[in-house]
């Protein structure tokens, strides 16, 4: 039986492990953290990612733990619509969009991997193209090594010695989950160099995120900074901040990976953020990792085929997300006025044309 070592026990790593197990591989998952878990944040699972989960037989369990996204779009900081997107129409064109806690998605994926394959508290030091992995518990060997260990990937930095370093996007982000609170719609609001977004979770809580232009490696801040920036924005944003506990606020700078020349080397394949970490402007980071997992399992051990199928697509989506973030983060008053006017005047068909190559993936 062929053996795969998956390094990283997040969404991409567990999805890859589940997909390989289904294809008859023996799998070992090495996770640096003391347990397989996810941070307190929500996640949108777009139609392309739900199709990937359906391939794994996990789409329905995820849908059971999720809530369908409702009316969404983009507003300005005063609450005036700039662009609306009826998710019923998105569903009719592409399929459902669902929202759930990241930990719920991880639970579904973890349950699809044999418990004996999961090894937590193991830190990987080096992965070699010949399939040898050196880690804190010794050494492992495999026919396939999957680097799924996030943007600061030890696999990538050890096997791709000349790979570029992650690049700061120019803005920082806060993520949080409120106490249960009722909201009408969901979506994002764009200001001048700042954004705030929110979406309901199945249990009545609301997942929120905020983004602001900031120097790299600035101080870690919480609710006080969020209130300073967003308390005067339209409803329900002030109420959402009031319903948030300080300890639930996560604050991180946003980074992306410059394009790699290849996602594979010898017996190693990179998936998810280790290969193509992108800004979250399209909500496609984890979605693309799920696609990666399915395609890798379908093509392995032919890793050249995996690279050919995944690298062009993921790098196009990363570039699209980068461009969207640049426009969304404009801060000069004239540029913001021009952007907002353009969004109001743009036909609905333009948004669907831009989404089509992202959401129409079918494996």
UniProtKB/TrEMBL annotation:
Cleaved signal peptide residues: none
InterPro entries per record: FAD-bd, FAD-dep_Monooxygenase_BioMet, FAD/NAD-bd_sf
TM ranges: none
Molecular function in Gene Ontology: FAD binding; monooxygenase activity
Top-level taxon of origin: Bacteria
Gene3D superfamilies on file: FAD/NAD(P)-binding domain
Record-given protein name: NAD(P)-binding protein
């Amino acid at each position: 039986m062929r053996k795969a070592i998956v390094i990283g026990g997040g969404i991409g790593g567990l999805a890859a492990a589940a997909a390989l197990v289904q294809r008859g591989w023996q799998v070992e998952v090495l996770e640096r953290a003391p347990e397989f878990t996810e941070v307190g944040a929500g996640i949108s699972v777009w139609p392309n990612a739900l199709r990937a989960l359906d391939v794994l037989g996990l789409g329905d369990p995820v849908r059971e733990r999720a809530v369908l996204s409702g009316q969404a779009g983009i507003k300005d900081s005063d609450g005036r619509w700039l662009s609306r997107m009826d998710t019923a129409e998105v569903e009719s064109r592409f399929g459902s969009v669902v929202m759930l806690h990241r930990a719920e998605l991880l639970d579904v994926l973890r349950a699809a991997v044999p418990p004996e394959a999961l090894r937590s508290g193991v830190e990987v030091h080096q992965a070699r193209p010949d399939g040898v992995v050196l880690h804190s518990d010794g050494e492992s060997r495999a026919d396939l090594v999957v680097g799924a260990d996030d943007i600061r990937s030890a696999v990538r930095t050890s096997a791709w010695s000349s790979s570029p370093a992650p690049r700061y996007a120019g803005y920082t982000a806060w993520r949080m989950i409120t106490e249960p609170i009722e909201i009408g719609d969901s979506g994002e609001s764009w200001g001048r160099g700042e954004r705030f977004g929110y979406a309901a979770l199945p249990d009545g809580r609301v997942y929120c995120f905020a983004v602001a232009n900031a120097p790299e490696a600035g101080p870690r801040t919480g609710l006080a900074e969020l209130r300073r920036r967003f308390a005067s924005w339209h409803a329900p944003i002030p109420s959402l901040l009031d319903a948030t506990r300080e300890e639930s606020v996560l604050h991180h700078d946003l980074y992306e990976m410059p394009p790699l020349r290849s996602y594979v080397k010898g017996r190693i394949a990179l998936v998810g953020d280790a290969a193509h970490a992108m800004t979250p402007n399209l909500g496609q980071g984890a979605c693309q990792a799920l696609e990666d997992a399915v395609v890798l399992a379908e093509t392995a051990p032919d890793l050249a085929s995996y690279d050919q199928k995944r690298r062009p697509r993921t790098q196009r989506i990363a570039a699209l997300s980068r461009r969207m973030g640049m426009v969304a983060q404009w801060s000069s008053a004239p540029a913001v006025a021009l952007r907002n006017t353009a969004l109001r005047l743009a036909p609905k068909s333009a948004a669907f044309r831009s989404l089509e190559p992202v959401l129409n993936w079918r494996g």
